[in-house]
Amino acid sequence: xxxxEKGPGFAEGLRSFWGDQNFANVSNGIxxxxxxxxxxxxxxxxxxSVANLPPEVVESxxxxxxxxxxxxxxxxxxxxxxxxxxxxxxxxxxxLAQVLGxxxxxxxxxxxxxxxxxxxxxxxxxxxxxxxxxxPGAVMMxxxxxxxxxxxxxCVTSFKTAPVICxxxxxxxxxxxxxxxxxxxVMGTLIAVFIAxxxxxxxxxxxLDFSIAKPMFVMPAFNFxxxxxxxxxxxxxxVCAENMQAIGVQVAIGKKPPVTAMTVVSGIGGIVAxxxxxxxxxxxxxMTAWAGSDDCGDVDKRYVAxxxxxxxxALTGIFAKFTMGLLAMIPAEALNMVVSLTLxxxxxxxxxxxxxxxxxxxxxxxxxxxxxxxxxxxxxxSAFWALFAGTIITLLLEKGDYDAMVSPLx
Length: 410
Prior knowledge:
Layout: H1 10-17, H2 23-50, H3 55-80, E1 86-87, H4 90-100, H5 105-125, H6 128-134, H7 137-152, H8 154-157, H9 163-178, H10 185-199, H11 224-252, H12 259-272, E2 282-283, H13 285-291, H14 303-318, H15 320-328, H16 332-355, H17 361-373, H18 382-397, H19 399-406
Antiparallel strand pairs: 1-2
């Protein structure tokens, strides 16, 4: 029995690739990869700085997840001729940042590896849908909202020390969101804070490094607390947030998504990436949504956008040291603003998924407030306890909602 769903195949994908290219799918694919790539680099930088990880780890982390994500994009898009994009989990990186400092680098890598193994097993055993149906999605997304809440609030706290630059960042965001909708709003923020920093003489001279970023091998070490604090929450986020969104995109455009293959590939990426400091390489929900959008033209040719997105995304990681140099020029408050506004859509979406339906209200609140607290018990971080608390409260107070959710499986 085949593990993966059958697709048109690489031969067919490569044969039709050049002929299916047009301005819409090529330009949007490249812009998608470059823009998302550039604006997401500060997120990993911030996660690493919280954990006091050295620059060589940041460099290895970036090149690993970017190149790995690009490879996944090319493989999946060409084999299935679908707009499936690979990258890395933004909520995963930011949600776990607060607990990384509690472990050594090999233990962190071991936690990442557990997540990859977890996802691979889910894919190989075909239990993805079962797991998703057994864990309330509202509780899961409340955990995401809670862990990202502190990062999101930095768009407010940054005003205290750099009000003018931060105000310019917000203006750039609003202008792009309202009037220049083809340009991602966060890119507007990044451009605005750069201009404001130059005008105010706040730009720091930093030598730009055009050399290629290099991966660094790290042998993982298993730590039970790291497995619970890092591995399980990250594994669930990849499957229940990233993959499910990407699957939804395929369904929305009238395509049949290769659910098992998407999960298995995310698991393989989650196993390989940790050995080079990356937290995962997986199917990316938001970027798949971009590549699958109407802006990329004919629905049957949108896979071309995914391929070019992967190429551009990988190049962003290869030259990550140059981008990091550019970002190091602007004040820390401005970078915090960029990070915060990058996450705003995810926080709003997660809150909507958590509380919008009116179900699992108490479980979702327990999950949200626990995750937002950043509490650590027995050396295990808040992401795990948020899922635990939310599920227990749901079973105690909202059994009717839970039974209605799982009854189709019985």
